[in-house]
Amino acid sequence: MKQPHHSPHLPYSAYLVERRDLSEDTSLFRIAPEADALTELSSFVPGQFVQLSVPGGGEIPISPADLPAAQGTVELCVRRVGHVTELLHKLEPGAQLGLRGPFGCGFPLDDMAGRPVLLLAGGLGIAPLRSLLMHLLRQRERYGDITLMYGAKQPGLMLFREELAALAAAGGMRLYLTVDFAPEQLEGGYSCAIGLLPDLLKGFRFDAANTYAAVCGPPPLYRCLVADLERAGVAAQRILLSLERRMRCGVGRCCHCAIGQKLCCVDGPVFRASDLKGIPEAL
Ligand SMILES: Cc1cc2nc3c(=O)[nH]c(=O)nc-3n(C[C@H](O)[C@H](O)[C@H](O)COP(=O)(O)OP(=O)(O)OC[C@H]3O[C@@H](n4cnc5c(N)ncnc54)[C@H](O)[C@@H]3O)c2cc1C
Ligand code: FES
């Protein structure tokens, strides 16, 4: 798939190294792209996305869950929801894939430096926020307090829970977990509240005037959390939202991903809440 003068529209070749099931419909895919693609991916900022092509299926936008530079692989946490993701979930290690990117605007890491960071993840929203979390922890001294609040429907759908518990136990971050309901005793030595993600925020004491909040989750969560964060004193320009829209070109040419006058693929997918005020369809 490699081209002599590489166009952003053409995927580089890549192959599936490993797949790890995280829940009944969501797996972590470790993918090795060819060397030229890795060079482009070295500029990756958490929150940006890649376009993954699955032969015989098509292309889908995915925000990497991590990009461990030393390993030369990209980690994609993908839920099986339709045609392309079904095909991806059937692949075995060694399978050929295509990858282009990174695209879009990620989290404003330089602005966040020196400040507390509060990550709020609902369901699959943990995927893009995991790459931000890994970055913050790798450069721990560059940031203030790091707190992750993560809500899932039930314990079996809580992704990366052992890994997150281990990271919290190592002391670099505070972790608050919640599930909408818990049908059985929780296993695995982690504790978690029962309730919705916004409930975790209620009564949470933090330095709201300086904090950057990064939010990713199902659409109904955004409006509620933005209001709660603003009420708590976090300014709208420091509330960062990772949005999803259906995409095609990924590079600002087709307008498939329009949000008002903005394009999710180039102006986002990470937006400041202040930039979305006056665009009712954004949230
Ligand atoms: C910037 C960005 C980052 C993303 N990151 C991730 C990620 O880390 N992990 C992950 O599992 N998924 C992620 N997605 C969503 C992923 O792209 C879609 O699930 C995928 O395109 C579905 O393809 P499909 O052919 O399997 O499903 P389809 O057969 O096309 O659709 C199945 C269902 O999913 C819905 N759907 C499809 N695309 C989207 C979309 N872009 N947004 C909302 N709903 C959609 C359809 O309406 C339909 O209900 C991301 C999307 C964007 C735009
Ligand atoms: S996906 Fe084509 S303009 Fe955004």
Give the H and E element order.
EEHEEEHEHEHEHEEHEHEEEHEH
Termini gap? 37 Å
What CATH architecture label of the largest domain applies? Answer: 3-Layer(aba) Sandwich
Percent helix? 10-25%
Largest sheet: 7 strands, mixed
Adjacency order of strands in the biggest sheet? 10-9-8-7-11-12-15
Average pLDDT score: 90
Q: Which structural class matches the secondary elements?
A: alpha/beta
| CATH topology descriptor of the largest domain | Rossmann fold
Question: How many strand units?
Answer: 15
What gyration radius follows from the Cα positions, in whole Å? 18 Å
Q: Low-confidence runs (pLDDT<50, min 5 residues)?
A: none
Binding site for [2Fe-2S] cluster: 249, 254, 257, 265
GO molecular function, one term: oxidoreductase activity
Domain FAD-binding FR-type: 9-109
Cofactor: [2Fe-2S] cluster
